[in-house]
């Protein structure tokens, strides 16, 4: 009687061992003195350090269907940055410093080289956000995913002193809304993008449209953490799926609304291009970030100082609105 191996079932353990070997040095670059375990432990250990009243803030997200463009163009080194960005930018909205990150990768047939290149993007995202990549899971699932397809998701934990927590409760009427530019589409709205763009090799300026769409999501951790050390900030918002319309109201207290001047928003050319392919303007504003990746809400007396600090940190902040009395959460006009 013949026997059946795990490899016969479609899972190549040797390729898995090879991928771990290729990843180890990449992962180690993200570690700091607080990481107490290496790659391969059953659980990752992280020493929190001295804090008075710490609050842990967690976040999880994935890259979504942007992955399809990466695989069709065989560009594997950027989407890992997106995965990290989607998580760390979220916990940052509460003033939390990301401590560590874990990733989950699933595929139909594991290619150690591709897997390691995907993880190289994750490690780059962790370096950009000062988060340690402390562990992860690579699952080879033949018959469940098509060969050549990968899915990536991540999880992060950050920390903030309770007295420094930012939750929007201090937002007041008259506060100023300050925008930080996005790098492009980031990692949201790609189900619509893929309906509009089918040839990723088509020219777009001095690059292909595929290269433009794969521009990694900006990670705002370092400038925002520096900012809140120096200035009072009342609210922070990461502009992801649903754009400004859906994300900014998440931090606005009851009885107030964000009044955003559309004409003040510096819309990036990629969004004008996508709209020219047949998308209604209202659909664009309700789906994409339109050029605004992160928002700061602060007292108007702090506005000039905040903008100056951000500019000194290499950012390009600008004012897009104010907080007013109202019950709609947001008024885009």
UniProtKB/TrEMBL annotation:
Subcellular compartments: Cytoplasm
Domain PurM-like N-terminal: 55-160
Enzymatic reactions: 2-formamido-N(1)-(5-O-phospho-beta-D-ribosyl)acetamidine + ATP = 5-amino-1-(5-phospho-beta-D-ribosyl)imidazole + ADP + phosphate + H(+)
Annotated coiled-coil segments of the chain: none
Enzyme Commission number(s) from the entry: 6.3.3.1
Pathway stated in the Swiss-Prot or TrEMBL entry: Purine metabolism; IMP biosynthesis via de novo pathway; 5-amino-1-(5-phospho-D-ribosyl)imidazole from N(2)-formyl-N(1)-(5-phospho-D-ribosyl)glycinamide: step 2/2
Domain PurM-like C-terminal: 172-328
UniProtKB keywords: ATP-binding, Cytoplasm, Ligase, Nucleotide-binding, Purine biosynthesis
Superkingdom of the organism of origin: Bacteria
Main location: cytoplasm
Matches recorded under CDD domains: PurM
Transmembrane segments: none
GO MF term list: phosphoribosylformylglycinamidine cyclo-ligase activity
HAMAP family, per the entry: AIRS
UniProt family annotation: Belongs to the AIR synthase family.
Record-given protein name: Phosphoribosylformylglycinamidine cyclo-ligase
């Amino acid at each position: 009687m013949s026997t059946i191996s795990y490899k016969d079932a479609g899972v190549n353990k040797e390729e898995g061992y090879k991928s771990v070997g290729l990843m180890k040095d990449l992962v180690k670059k993200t570690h700091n003195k607080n990481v107490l375990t290496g790659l391969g432990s059953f659980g990752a250990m992280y020493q929190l350090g001295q804090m008075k009243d710490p609050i842990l803030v967690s976040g999880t997200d994935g890259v979504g269907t942007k992955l399809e463009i990466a695989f069709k163009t065989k560009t594997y080194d950027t989407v890992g940055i997106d995965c990290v960005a989607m998580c760390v930018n979220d916990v940052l909205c509460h003033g939390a410093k990301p401590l560590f990150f874990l990733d989950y990768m699933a595929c139909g047939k594991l290619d150690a080289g591709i897997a390691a290149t995907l993880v190289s993007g994750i490690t780059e995202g962790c370096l950009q956000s000062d988060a340690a990549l402390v562990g992860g899971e690579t699952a080879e699932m033949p018959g469940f995913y098509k060969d050549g397809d990968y899915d990536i998701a991540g999880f992060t934990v950050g920390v903030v002193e309770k007295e420094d927590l930012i939750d929007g409760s201090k937002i007041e009427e008259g506060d100023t809304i300050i925008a930080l530019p996005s790098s492009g589409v980031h990692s949201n709205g790609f189900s619509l993008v893929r309906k509009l763009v089918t040839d990723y090799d088509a020219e777009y300026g001095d690059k292909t449209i595929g290269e433009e769409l794969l521009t990694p999501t900006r990670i705002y951790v370092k400038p925002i953490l520096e900012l809140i050390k120096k200035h009072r900030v009342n609210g922070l918002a990461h502009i992801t799926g649903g754009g400004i319309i859906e994300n900014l109201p998440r931090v606005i207290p009851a009885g107030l609304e964000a009044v955003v001047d559309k004409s003040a928003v510096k819309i990036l050319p990629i969004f004008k291009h996508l709209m020219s392919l047949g998308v209604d303007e209202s659909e664009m504003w309700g789906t994409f970030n339109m050029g605004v990746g992160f928002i700061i809400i602060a007292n108007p007396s702090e506005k000039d100082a905040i903008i100056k600090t951000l500019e000194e940190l290499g950012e390009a902040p600008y004012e897009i609105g104010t907080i007013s009395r109202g019950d709609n959460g947001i008024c885009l006009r």
